[in-house]
């Protein structure tokens, strides 16, 4: 990965988290102000020891911290991560969180999660309205699949036409790996040379899928030259737009993945390349550099395959965005469930920290990908925050529901101890997840 790609990924991650954190905290800030609770601080990122920026306006100090692990609002009279024992030791004031009715405190606490869910829905709705939705139906993958070594290990072969997973057709080709994992599939049905075959999925395969983090199945795309970089090795060899590559040094290179394999096998060599141009077979001589690239690009998949594209009007995009938001949440919960119920999915191989999240963003700035990732992270943030764990919003909600149902408020000392336990758990998980990232990226390269 180049330095530029790293910086682009990091920039997208920081911008996305900044949007999510500010809006999440606004979800707490706005109802707190509406109900007359004093908000002492509103911070993007944490500020232990010092802040990068701060400005006092009214009763609230607004600022930016230096530790980009989240953000917070400090509401007077609330047991939170600030652990302000001095304030809590005093009699409650009318402007404090603890003086407000339980139903108001509940609305304040669920405000952040509510905003994150609404944000995910709105982003999806606006994306569908602006870009529409496009996907490649599995049945339209007319040249079959290109398999990696992992897929090949269970008997899948280049050119296989995927029919179904666990005898259930998968409409969107790109959804096949997720279907294998989330449905804990035991077989894949394919068509090969006119025969229908059942490919069993052995124990341990899904674990390897997660470890590899590969695409597993790619479309088999003919290498039809779309453009040639000026003064590149391809240009010097005489390649032109529209050429269909056939072989490279006698090795099959009709499909893009075959061409890439042949290039790697012939690095630092001068090799013959057979191409088809205007119905004639032509032989070119190319110098394959150490980088195994010649400087030419294949046509995009949408020029070869029939994609299904659906356009949405503004009113159509609203329910479609809501549906996509719910489906994304359900799939995320299914993925999380695998960590606890699947024999193959291990937390040490599935969890990740900020490096893993950052790597989900593309290496080039792409607004469509950026907003899609931001919507996904917003939904994940909402779900994780509502978990009934002390120090998270869900922990506060759990205690407030107990108070509303029983009429008895947990003591502030109990809430304080619960907050400490929750913070230890969360920081432990944070260190563990990011430690796994460091281990994978430094010691397992």
Automatic annotation (TrEMBL):
SUPFAM superfamilies named in the record: PDZ domain-like
One BP term from GO: proteolysis
Keywords: Hydrolase, Membrane, Metal-binding, Metalloprotease, Protease, Transmembrane, Transmembrane helix, Zinc
Cofactor: Zn(2+)
Source organism superkingdom: Bacteria
All residue ranges annotated as the PDZ domain in the record: 187-279
GO cellular component: membrane
Similarity comment: family membership: Belongs to the peptidase M50B family.
PANTHER family per record: MEMBRANE METALLOPROTEASE ARASP2, CHLOROPLASTIC-RELATED, REGULATOR OF SIGMA-E PROTEASE RSEP
Protein name (database record): Zinc metalloprotease
Species per Swiss-Prot/TrEMBL record: Chitinophaga oryziterrae
Gene transcribed to yield this protein: rseP
